[in-house]
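Field reference: sequence -> structure
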Amino acid sequence: MVANIIFNLILIGPLAHTGLALTTSISISLVAWSMFLGLRRKIGSLGAVSYLKCGLKAGAASVVMGFVTYFVCHGLYGLLGVSKFYNLVSLLSAAGIGALVYRGLCYLLGVDEARMVVGAARKRLKG
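Structure field:
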């Protein structure tokens, strides 16, 4: 709470409402980190290395998904032209393709949760 107020006072002037959002994100990150450290002190190891690996893999997949989504959306926008319907088609197509790219990359990068989802889907389809 104190960190949020201090960051607000520092950043809200030069960045306006963007500074308010940024300071809130920074203070929430600090609170989450301090809670993580406190929990680790109380119960011991939490497997932080595996969380970090998973986060890095998901982050890499997110970056690639972002680029793919951006180029698909703008590519379709250039092909289809300008209208509300075509903009909607471009946006929904880009979002769907981006989601598929993200899921596929998470699976290929070995994110355990993505492999669990695929395994559960296969199990359900088999009967």
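Note: Residues 46 and 84 are 49 Å apart (CA to CA).
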